[in-house]
Amino acid sequence: MALKLFSLKHLIKKPINILYNRGPTYQNNVVHNLKNFSTSSIACINFFNKLPAEKLWKSVTSVSNAGAKKGRGKGAGRIRIRDLNRGQVIGVGKVNMLWPGLSAPVIRGRELLKQQRLPDDPERMEKLIKLRDSMTKFRRLKLSTIERGWSGTRMPGRSIGPPDPVADEEFTGFDTKVLQLRSLLIMKGTLGRTRNYQAMVVTGNGQGLAGFGLGRAKEAPAALRKAKNRAGKKLMHFDIYNGHTIFHDFFTAFGKTKIYVEKKNEGFGLSCHRAIKEICQAIGIKDLRAKVEGSHNLQHIVKAFFIGLLQQRTHQQLAEEKKLHLVEYKDENEYYPTVVASPSVVRTKDEIPKDETLDFIQYVMNDRVVLKKKKFPRFYETMPHYNIYLKKYERYRNHEKIRLNLKIENGEVKSFLNYKYPEENDVKET
Question: What is the pTM (predicted TM-score) of this model?
């Protein structure tokens, strides 16, 4: 490398020595030799003169693909404040001019561009007015309170319509709700880190038919469409007791997710996890309470609840299993026993083993107990004056209820001693 540099230095110095250090005999030759030199400037092509100003600024202010994958520049895709200078770019005006370094690159190929005037654009002002009008009418996407999801404009909790028709069959009366939409980063040997979207939806007609599906694709709309169509192809039928709730309490689990589901009276509503609420609305269940314990993985919650609904039995099936009458007690009926189902063959008292589970709730819950919060007494119940209050009003307790029962049974409020001493009542009447 040193030898090459030395020879190059020798070649550079040689014409300079000819010009300044030689005699007049060589000057004619030098003048003659200067005709062989080119006086045109050598174009130095680089990144800054090959591109216009817009692309140069974009390269400085934007985020690279590698940076975007790592989560840098998160605000790049957000909706920003309206740009009032849009259409008023340096280098672009009423007169259509070509400005090297602003509206065009400095060098194009091997040619050095020069400032020049281009043909006028008669439609320029119309395009600019149209652009500004569209900016003034621009509004942020706003959904109604009915259409919004669980959290604002995000997809989970939103409706995406019925599944696509299969052959000649259409899903009339069906509606699909998004339960989950998340992005997945998958590392591959050839493509590197790729981004996919995974969607989970539930679809149903509100009359006992429902199904759920998973879909994965490169884009979110494609993943939602796949999940919706798969849910429509995997429909399941569920029986609904009296058109509003389940047949009995049950326990279900999937993985480390455990769910305790309770049957409720009409008008109670849905007190449960939001994903379970969407499933109940798709099926047509209106009154239910569910408690989730363990892992709150959304896919596990959905699968566990569907397994529990499929495993529930009707009242007649339960009566046939135990070969005993199924009796229901309700608070609104003053806990009067009502026979709900009777088996074809009833066992006698001697045929029932002593260690058999006869409690209905314990039997349908598979001997599992729901953990309930302990109720502590009110702060005033532990104080001395509360005992004095109870003793003072003991003889007036339940008087209103007793008066009501007397009116129902006798038609009037009268003493219990009337049955024992009827002659007293006759004396009063005379």
Answer: 0.61
- Residue 246's pLDDT is 95
Contact (Cβ atoms closer than 8 angstroms) between residue 90 and residue 66: no
**In 3D, which of 324, 319, 327, 250 has the Cα closest to residue 290?**
250
Q: What is the mean pLDDT of residues 72-77?
A: 60
In three-state secondary structure terms, 338 is: strand
Residue type, 415: S
pLDDT tens column, 131-153: 777 665 545 567 788 888 898 88
d(CA 32, CA 290): 103
The single residue listed with the structure tokens 């038919």 is: 209
Q: How far apart are CA 280 and CA 206, in angstroms?
A: 8
Strands (E), 133-245: 175-188, 192-204, 209-217, 236-237
Confidence band (pLDDT; 50, 70, 90) for 381? Answer: very high
* Distances in whole angstroms, Cα of residue 350 to Cα of each of 256, 347, 354: 41, 8, 9
Q: Which of 34-43, 64-73, 77-86 has the highest mean pLDDT?
A: 64-73
Q: What's the mean pLDDT when you consider all of the chain?
A: 82
Question: How many other C-beta atoms lie within 10 A of the C-beta of residue 348?
Answer: 7
DSSP state of 95: S
Residue 290 sits at φ, ψ, to 5 deg, of -135, 135
β-pair partners for 259: 252, 292
Whole-number Å distance between alpha carbons of 208 and 235: 10
362 or 26, which is more confident?
Answer: 362
Asked whether the beta carbons of 174 and 229 are under 8 A apart, the reply is no
Q: What whole-number distance in Å separates Cα of residue 405 and Cα of residue 229?
A: 60
Q: Are 247 and 241 in contact (CB under 8 A)?
A: yes
Residues 201, 225: Cα–Cα separation, whole Å: 10
Q: Where are the beta strands (DSSP E) in 301-342?
A: 326-328, 338-341
Which tokens is 296 given? 């709150």
Is the C-alpha dihedral spanning 202, 203, 206, 207 positive or negative? negative
DSSP string, 38-94: --SPPP---HHHHS-HHHHHHHHHS--HHHHHTT--GGGGS-----TTTT--TT-SS
Residue ranges in 214-262 assigned as alpha helix (H): 220-233
More confident residue, 54 or 195: 195
